[in-house]
Amino acid sequence: MSRARFGLVLILPALTILTLFALVPIAGSLFESLHHRTAAEPVARFAGLDNYARLLRDEEAVESVGFTMLFVGTSVSLELGLGLAIALVLHQAFRGRGLVRAAVLVPWAIPTVVASIIWKYVFDDRHGILNYLLFGADLNAYLVWLADPFWAKALIISADVWKTTPFTALLLLAGLQTVPGELVEAARVDGAGPLRRFFVITLPLLRPAILVALLFRTMDAFREFELVYELTQGKEGTSVLQFYGYKVLFGRQDYGFGSAISCLVFFLIAIVAFFYVRTVGTRLFEEAR
Amino acid sequence: MKRSGLWLAAAAVVIYSVAPFLWIVVTSLKPSLEIEARPPMLWPRDLSLESYARAQKGHGVTSLLINSLIVAGGTTLITIPIAALAAYALARLKLRGRRVILSLILVASMFPQVALVHTLYGMIQVMGLVNTRPGLSIPYVMLTLPLAIWILASFFKEIPEDLEDAARIDGCGPVRTLVSVFMPVAAPGVFTAAILTFIYAWNEFFFALVLLTDPARQTLPRGIALMPGRFTIPWGEIAAASVIATLPLVILVLVLQRRIISGLTAGAVKG
Question: Which CATH number fits the domain that encloses residue A84?
Answer without folding.
Answer: 1.10.3720.10
